[in-house]
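Methods — Computational structure assignment.
A single polypeptide chain was analysed. Its primary sequence is given first, followed by the predicted tertiary structure written as structure tokens.
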Amino acid sequence: MNKYEFIENTLNELNIPLRIASGRSVVEAIADGYRKAGWNAQSYSNFTKKYFSDKKHREYILTYLFNKKDVKHCRYCDEVKDKSEFAIHSTKSVGVQPLCIQCTSIYFKDNIDMVYYAARRRADKISRTPGGVETEEIKLFYKNCPPGYHVDHIIPLKGKNVSGLHVINNLQYLTAEDNLKKSNKYDPLAQ
């Protein structure tokens, strides 16, 4: 079942009305957010206090309902399924992957090139980063990249004739257009 059907069924089980006095849909407010559903913050807060008083502070009602029923929403197939149909993910607060096991295999088959090249890129960066390098300084360099610019390796990590290191002295900001033109080339005379 999709999340709208799940919310409607759960609200019926809990004897919670599907619409408030003004006619606004409770199902839409929970599924899409109260602002999109046309609620004001005060009426949504009053509704939450009345029907979900045992919900944790700042916890979404949808998350609360998922946890109450021990289910999870798969973002790929848009279905609400039992948590046992999801792979374990110890670092996630819910403890499971965002995609169900069935959809994970479909997603990776459909996006194998993207997954492969992203993994290769991460591995190349790690192998080209010498020990003792200030990784926090590099992270800050990436974070401070101006809009419309890319972080570029002056000497590419995997150049045709020469390969550089993933260190702060080998990073620069380039416009997106210039970075795409440069690709993985290195011209020492251009410096």
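Note: DSSP finds eight helices and six strands in the chain.
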